[in-house]
Amino acid sequence: MDQTRQAVHQSTQRSAHKSTRGSAQGSAQGSASPTFAELFTPKLVTVWREGYHLPQFKADFMAGLTVAIVALPLSMAIAIASGVTPERGLFTAIVGGFIISAFGGSRFQIGGPAGAFIVLVAATVQREGVDGLLLATMMAGVFLLAIGYLRLGTYIKFIPYPVTVGFTAGIAIIIFSGQIVELFGLKLAGPEPGPLLPKLMAIGQAAGTVNISATLVAVLTIVTIVAVKRWRPGWPGMLIAVGLASLVVALLALPAETIGTRYGGIPRSLPFPTLPTLTMGKIVAVLPDAIAFALLGAIESLLSAVVADGMTGRRHRSNCELVAQGFANIASALFGGMCVTGTIARTATNVRAGAHGPVSGMLHSLFLLVFMLVAAPLASYIPLAALAGVLAVVCWNMFEKQAFATLLRASRGDALVLMATFLIVVFRDLTEGIVVGFALGSILFIDRMAKSIAVEADLVQDDVADSSGRAYDASEASDVDTVVYRISGAFFFGAASTVGGVLDRIADQRKNFILDCSAVPFFDSTAANVIESAAHKARRAGVRFIISGASPQIRRTLINHGVKRPLVTYAASISDARAQLTVPPAVDATQ
User: Which positions are tagged coiled coil (predicted)?
Assistant: First the structure.
């Protein structure tokens, strides 16, 4: 979520026909479930089996270098904004990014620290310290492993679009509010509050401490990034902006804080892997954070993989990707890193740079490691205002302005879900925002599906469609003792009261009642119970009840709920049902 996601739906639409074609081919070959190896074989193995030679390596080498240049300033900026030292962002991109590319289910996924985690990580660090963050990250990795191996990756992608837009916009607002202090070089009277309103009040009270030098550095950074993107879009704008700002501060000796003055620089090597403090009290304390890390990481990584699929026409393996995310988070915590996930902006950069496969992501991590080994002292000169400027641009891109405005105009339901998610994320809590938004989206979906079902009289007395559109009139039927009704749409608990009310009124109006279910794709237990009640009522009234056109699955569901002889009989079509009526009930065709 560290970049705008307007490309998500465009990418999905571009690849929709390819995915549909692939699904149709798979269905033609059979309905057998994929094997464990098919689900969890890393894409690196797939690429290697296809044949990997020097031309492919050259493409991956250049793509990996390009992504590393983008990831270098961004990883440090995200770490600082999260309340930890800048090297922890690099540890995350190096260790976690390498594992995600090596073992993931996407050819082009680039892993690293993501802007969406800034608020969650900062809150965890403030409450439980860095050791609590490392433990929560490791636990999130275990949860992601469980989600992947239980094959739940498909369900995570069911988050409604208004929820993702509202959530991302809320995160952008919160992240930007956290950069105001560094953008203007403010000196707060005390620790910076976490909630938005108290934070803004504290910033307002410190308005008289603006550092002009820091402000100019931030403006220079933002202007440079925007200018490079407009006139030289192929150049690494963020790295150029940070480098230029660092040079200006060093040459002019501006009084602006740098990584060196605040943190003393960054180390020149990776730390030795160590376990965080493991106590039952600590585990319980960070459990909610670990769950939030796992949920957000899964959503972000799979969304990023979908974008990559849309840009390339490839298909990722969701559960394999989540397993790799799990191992990456565990390893990142062992090496002192923070939460790691697939990142949309860096993944898209990887694709545009001509990457062939996962080797580019692995090389991106190795290039970042080389930077730490060789050029770590240069990081001391990077102004914090410049990194804040980088994140300000990221926040601008995260807030999907066009998508936000479109959803506000789309419908009242979508606008409600969007604004509820956005406002709760900004003023309450990220997890609450997702849960409330998802719940509202689900309720609206249920309501729309319930309204889509129709129970109507069959327009004619056989299976031939009547183009006149006339309502059913028993006086015109060849058999006035028979009524035929058709259910259209998914019949589930949301539509039970509507359908049940109609069936209660019509089940005892004639001697024979045919209920056509050929246009019903799905029945649930509540729907089966409604049909059972109607069948019992019809039997008490002496009405013969026949169900026609039910698929084998629907028929099985109904029979399991007691909807069988002698309550009802089944027919393949309305014509077959009418044929049954010519036979005495005692010798009806079997179900």
Answer: none
> Partners of 457 in the beta sheet?
485
Q: Which domain holds residue 428?
A: 7-13+47-444
Q: Using one digit for the tens of pLDDT, what is the confidence trace for 174-183? A: 889 888 999 9
Mean pLDDT, rounded, for 541-567: 89
Other beta carbons within 10 angstroms of residue 384's beta carbon come to 26
Model pLDDT, residue 477: 45
Is the N-terminal amide bond of 377 cis, ω within 30° of 0? no
- Burial grade of 412 (CB within 10 A; 0-12, 13-18, 19 or more): exposed
Helix 344-352 / helix 7-29 crossing angle, nearest 10 deg: 80
Q: How many domains, the chain? A: 2
| Whether pLDDT at 463 is above 70 | no
- What is the per-residue pLDDT for 19? 41
Helices 161-184 and 412-427: crossing angle in degrees, nearest 10, is 40
Report which DSSP code applies to 457: E
Number of helices (H) and strands (E) in the chain: give both, helices first: 25, 7
* Residues 6 or more apart in contact with residue 94 via CB below 8 angstroms: 270, 335, 337, 365, 366, 368, 369, 372
pLDDT at 24 over 70: no
Q: Are residues 141 and 179 in the same domain?
A: yes
Which tens digits make up the pLDDT trace of 38-53?
Answer: 888 999 999 999 999 9
Q: Which tokens go with 374?
A: 């060789």
CB-based contact 547:561 (threshold 8 Å)? no
189 and 279 fall within a common domain: yes
CA-wise closest residue to 384 among 179, 193, 206? 179
Cβ atoms of residues 222 and 208 within 8 Å: no
Q: What is the mean pLDDT of residues 91-107?
A: 95
Beta strand extents in 153-267 (DSSP E only) = none
In a domain, residue 66? The reply is yes
pLDDT tens by residue, 370-395: 999 888 888 889 999 999 998 898 88
Contacts of 500 (CB under 8 A, 6+ apart): 530, 533, 534
Contacts 24+ apart (CB under 8 A), 235-244: 236/66, 236/69, 236/70, 238/70, 238/73, 238/74, 238/390, 238/393, 239/69, 239/70, 239/72, 239/73, 241/386, 241/389, 241/390, 242/73, 242/382, 242/386, 242/387, 242/390, 244/220
Alpha helices (H) in 264-317, listed in sequence order: 280-312
- Mean pLDDT score, 255-273: 89
8 Å CB contact between 334 and 376: no
486 and 384 both lie in a single domain = no
| Statement to judge: residues 330 and 407 lie in one domain | yes
As beta bridge partners, residue 512 has: 482, 544
405 and 359 inside one domain: yes
Report which of 591, 519, 521, 582 is spatially closest to residue 562, judged by C-alpha positions.
Answer: 591
C-alpha–C-alpha distance, residues 196 and 180, integer Å: 12
